[in-house]
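ERR on first pass: missing label on line 2. Operator R.T. fixed the label and resubmitted. Corrected input:
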Amino acid sequence: MTESAPLLLARGVTKAFAGVTVLRDVDLDLHKGEIHALLGENGAGKSTFAKIVAGVHRPTRGKLSLNGRQVDISSPLVAQKLGVTLIHQEPISFPDLSVAENLVLGQGEQGWFSRVPWAEMTREARRQMDQLGVSIDVTKPMRGLSIADQQMVEIGRALASGSRLIIMDEPTAPLTPKEVDTLFGIVRRLRGEGRTIIFISHRLEEVRALCDRVTIFRDGSKVATDAIENLDDAEIIRLMIGRPLKEYMHKHNASIGEVALEVEGLTLPGRFQDVSFQVRRGEIVGLGGLVGAGRTDVACAIFGIQPAESGSLKVNGKTVDIRQPDDAIALGLAFVPEDRAVSGIFRTLSVEQNITAAIPGRIAPRGFIRRAIEKLLAADSVRKLRIRLASVNQPIGELSGGNQQKAILARWLLAEPGILILDEPTRGIDIGVKAEFYDIIGELAEQGRAILLISSELPELLALCDRILVMAEGRLTAEIPRAEATQEKVMQAAVPRQQAGIAA
Amino acid sequence: MQEVTPARPLWHVILVRPETMTFVLLIAAVVVASQLSPYFLDISYILRSFTLSAEFAIVALVLTMVIIAGEIDLSPAANMALSACLFAWAQASGIPMPVAIGIGLLAGLAMGALNAFMVIALQLPSIIVTIGTLTLFRGLAQIIAGDKSIRVPDWFIGIDKILVFGIPMPVVIFVLAAFVLGLILAGTIFGRQIYQVGTNEVAARYAGIRTRRIKLVLFLLMGLVAAVAGMMTASRLGSVRYDLGLGGELQMVLMAMLGGTYIFGGRGTILGTFLAAWLLVVVSTGMTVANLLPAIQLTVLGVLLIVAIIATNFIYSRTQR
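pass 2 clean. output:
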């Protein structure tokens, strides 16, 4: 690591939104040629800081200097001119334009009516992709690219504009392990060229593998900056959450009963084939695998959102036909979907309405909604699940992610389901609230409910589940009992076979 | 880190509602109009003026529900013309009146079903579908009626002359319809689910709500109510032409928008549209009483609509992100 003058110098950077301070007096130096991790819980201020550096937000107070010169980064365009680029997690691009067009977009000073230099553009784009060492057809539209390749195009853009500071906000979240490796290789090369990278991630192992130094945020303040080798994992977690993490190993007292849900040869061409498994009462069955392995599709098929084409479903021993979610609910199934914003919440409607959405018959016994009953049920859920809010009449969009998720869980618990399917229930939730969720899931199993838990977080699966099923490329590849489950075993089954063959 | 956004005080919740804006505008319009002309405060004059827009206002109530559900229907005015033409043509060719009325109502339902089929089964955007059917229905009406007007029997004429406690029948029907639909929208599961579907259709489906059935019911209701409105218009005018209710869809949309219905769905009330219908009548009657040129009247209505849309969007974006 070079100990020359720092590339970026932040002093007393403070940001308040509508009177709420989200970032408080942050001092931070970034060296040339380092990979610097920003860590912290959601809402700790790491993304806000990154966005201030990238010109997306302007600081309420504080100074930024680049290369010893004080700068006012008033917009992303100014940031780009100064050599600072933010790579978005889900790349913002023009999906119908070609890769080449996306690459050169906004570069070069051209008049409105000047000719588009197609040939040069394509040549330049190819050169940039070659430089990165990735093979992407630059004449194809962006839409067809994987998220990993789209990220590469964004990195290519950053390099083409001569960026010296590249900020990556959770770039690895949507990537497969192999894509992560490729990304890391490129990031290391960029460091070798003397560029500085800010790397935001939730995954400690990635930070450890890649980064030189790390800065930890908590509640809007910087709590520590140090070289990564000086901090062990427990220390980092303690700094992030401000208290030692209790082991959230779930003590499973539930007695396992009859088969509640039985899936036999479930197939939906193009999504999943021949999926068979059982979930018993009181049992938590994990469903692991990589994103895109077909886990969510199986859940959607069981719940009737996108029914399977062949195969059979048995609920409590009886063969059933579930054509739509309505049927599933009537059979005592519940499904907490993965993407809360898209398929969970009614953003502008009250928390109360959100909680009671799946039980129309109970809040309106004779067709007309009985406000008193509704209020009672909602208030009861809020208390039981410790949902933090100001009023049940508040639009649910005003709640934090964790509390929104609790409200969706509350919706389904009111339906008193015998079988619960939870799809990534703790995604994007603070560590503290996560622990609460694990307790709740454990309690639900103890009450004799059958739980199918889809999760990409291995520690979560290992801690909570009685059995772990693993899917890869639309097929079930393993069923691992709790006693034998390890991260390696699950991962091995999750990686598509062609590549796993060598390792095995 | 602030975890909980504080709740807004009650006065704020009530004041910052689009219906409040409509109500304030309505009061202001009444005050201004009564300053312009002493005749204006004659209540029977306002009621008689309202009968001219009552049919559109009735349809606008259903349209409000359709818009809240996240769809739109621009075909009801053309539907009014086609179902009225079919009815008039049937009775003129000797079919008994009850059957002719039945034909008109069924035609309205069928038109609603056609819209529903294309929007729900074929998954086409309702704005395009109903612009298409609006042209189609109007064209069919012209084929049936030609450019002649078809007379209806004398006993059928004059719904606007029937008074209930001094109030013209179309106004009574409008008030009753607003009351019933308002109760349904605000107080029943069906109404609740209309808001949920309009707010987030995917989430509604995941919550077990039969989103397609809700939209089907709304489009069918729209077709049926438009047919009723078409026949009420026939009764008021005494004859039917293919251009009955021409341009009415814009007035209906105007009423819904003025009443604070959010064009992207999920928000709005029957009360808002109810008030907006009166506002529209008061403003245009007031301008007529004050002898304003028609050209100026149109401009004022345009400005009113734009102000309403800006205000509604501003209110929604401020209070509920």
